[in-house]
Amino acid sequence: MESVGLIEVKGLxxxxxxxxxxxxxxxxxxxxxxxxxxxxxxxxxxxxxEVAAVQxxxxxxxxxxxxxxxxxxxxxxxxxxxxxxxxxxxxxxxxSERQRLLEIE
Length: 105
Description:
Blueprint (H helix, E strand, L loop, with lengths): L2 E8 L1 H14 L3 E7 L6 E8 L1 H18 L1 E9 L6 H4 L8 H8 L1
Antiparallel strand pairs: 1-3, 1-4, 2-3
């Protein structure tokens, strides 16, 4: 995985809007989303791809999400260490390939 983009928002509408805009803006993979524990309606959208593509995708996702809700934070991690990948694509990541495989087992 070359880089990871994270967009943290309040509300599913803002999250889906961010994910849609991000994926339309650049050639990135939507890893999925993860709900924050503790409520408040916070969730984080997770993307991966080449650094420049992820940067463009995150920028577009943040811009569109702000139109319909609140963006809490966003960040790009270029070349994450391998051990971090287990946290990025965890069991709690809705829509991830890893989650689908765990459901089959």
